[in-house]
Each structure stands twice: as C-alpha cells, then as structure tokens.
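We store amino acids, tokens; thus:
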Amino acid sequence: MKCQEVLHEVFRQVFANPKLDLKPDMTPNDIDGWDSMAHVNLVAAVELRFKIKFENKDLRRIKTVGDLGQLIDGKLP
C-alpha cells in the first residue's frame, strides 16, 4: 500500500470519517474536527502506523496534508 493511501486511512480513523477525501493542499480549516487535540492524535497515529518519530521542528512545518505526507516520505527508508 502506498504512503498516501495509508495516510488517508489514518486520517479517516482519527477523524472518524470513512468518506474523507484528502487533497494535498487541505489545511485544518478544511477538515471538520482538526483542532489542536486532533492534531496531537493525528501525529501519534501517523508515528505509530508508519513506525517513525517526528521532532518538534518537523511538527511546526505541518500546515497542509501535503506537508505531512512529505515529512512522512522523508522519514521512511
């Protein structure tokens, strides 16, 4: 399964929305429920699912779904 497909699954689980259709330019304003607490849950779920660890500087760079995807790609072997 491709990274983007797995990321979509994680988003759908975290936001409890099986029909969520992500686009790279989407921001927290575009996704119902993406507040600061959901962001923490999302990051934890991504780290667990992809078996990666983000640093604080990484987290500050996440502004869009695409940003998160790029960070994941950069952490994977």
The helical segments are 3-14, 36-50, 56-60, 65-75. The chain has four helices and no strands. The chain has a mean pLDDT of 94.
